[in-house]
Amino acid sequence: MNTIKPIKIGAHKSSSGERLTSTEMAKLWATYMGNSMSLCILRYYLQHCEDQEIKSLLQDAIKLSTVFLDTTKGIFDKENIPYPIGFTEKDVNINAPRLFEDEFYVHYLKYAAKAGLSIYQIAIPIVYRKDVSEFFIYCMDATIALIEQIKSIQMKKGLIMKPPYIPVPERPEFANEDFLNGYLGKVRPLHAMEIAHLYDNIENNVTSKALILGFSQVARHEKVKSLFVRGKEMTHKNLESYMGHLHKENLPSPAFLDDLVTTSTFAPFSDKLMLFHKVDMFSMKIRAFGNSLAVNGRHDIGLMYSKSLMNIMLFVSNGAKIMMENGWMEEPPHAVSRDDLSKPK
Which listed residue, 58, 97, 185, 222, has the most CB atoms within 10 A of its CB? Predict the structure, then answer.
């Protein structure tokens, strides 16, 4: 396996006096939060990994997260900006019993890397300071390289079913009035972009379901546990719908990963970390469903994604409320309230 080269921390110099913009601050903040959490999770996984190739993959991911975190800290320190509390060794017990099998770690790394990629690819067009821009370009390139390593191991070990094949079209075709039908009239077969997004959503959600299944077993706080159980049931229903559309076309779908969760009920992570993780990743699903809706043509699939979107937004809202109730939710940097400044003292 090729090792991803680390960035030279402090190699990029900002222009004299050039402050961080709101977008730069926002994306650096999100990078810090995500990678401080990832390090807790990945170090625990590494403690319970026997497969040498998967262990090397985890070690590479830990190196990347460490570089991402340290570089973000360096930029914040240089600008005298307090970095978030995020997550620390207090949020993980690496000696807790194994909660997942080795195979799950590969699926998880791809799931998490996709989420990281979505942060970095959105950052690149809207950050302007050279050191920050080059940092996010590095994050993007390194994460893509990690995903390629993950895919290689998935294929080598037979851990993934490739997306389904469809016939090569004989000629270009134009849509007719039946193109949008999903319930009434003639319903056309799924087109390639619909299949691609169904496959991607299934791949993400089978990992998400296994993760929240494990979290629901070990959560201590009753409200957190109850929300995880609801999230697990919601994800299962969504998966049945997505898989059903592929199966109707006699197309295969990725399999469930629930059997890769052990029977442990001893928590390796704090409820704060687990709830942040699921709220954060469910928020990422909102973006994924937006992308899916954008390329969809059939009314029935559009309605399916819209229902999923509403349920996920409710989960995120409920999760955020629990986090705020317990003092777990850190605020990103924000604009000043001019109304408050105008109040008489």
Answer: 58
Say yes or no: 134 and 215 in one domain. no
Q: Exposed, middle or buried by CB within 10 Å (0-12, 13-18, 19+), for 56?
A: middle
At 158, list the tokens. Answer: 């037979």
Provide the residue-wise pLDDT of the chain in tens; the chain has 345 residues. Answer: 555 555 554 445 555 578 999 999 999 999 999 999 999 999 999 999 999 999 999 999 999 999 999 999 999 999 999 989 999 999 999 999 999 999 999 999 999 999 999 899 999 999 999 999 999 999 999 999 999 999 999 999 999 889 999 999 999 989 888 888 887 778 889 999 999 999 999 999 999 999 999 999 999 999 999 999 999 999 999 999 999 999 999 999 999 999 999 999 999 999 999 999 999 988 888 877 778 788 788 889 988 999 999 999 999 999 999 999 999 999 988 787 666 666 776
> What is the CA 96 to chain-centroid distance, rounded?
24
With beta carbons less than 8 A apart as the criterion, state whether 58 and 110 touch: no
> Both tokens of residue 229?
């159980």
Could you list the residue range(s) of the whole structural domain that residue 119 is in? 22-156
Domains contained in the chain, number: 2
DSSP string, 142-161: HHHHHHHHHHHHHHHTT--P
Q: Cα–Cα distance between 49 and 109 in angstroms, integer?
A: 14
**Which amino acid type is present at position 143?**
T
Cα–Cα nearest to 36, from 78, 79, 5, 65: 65
Q: What secondary structure letter does DSSP report for 167?
A: P
Q: Is residue 199 part of a domain?
A: yes
Exposed / middle / buried, residue 148 (Cβ in 10 Å: 0-12, 13-18, 19+) = exposed
What's the sign of the alpha-carbon dihedral 50, 52, 56, 57?
negative
- The model's pTM is 0.92
DSSP classification of residue 261: B
Q: What torsion, rounded to 10 degrees, do the Cα atoms 57, 60, 64, 69 define?
A: 90
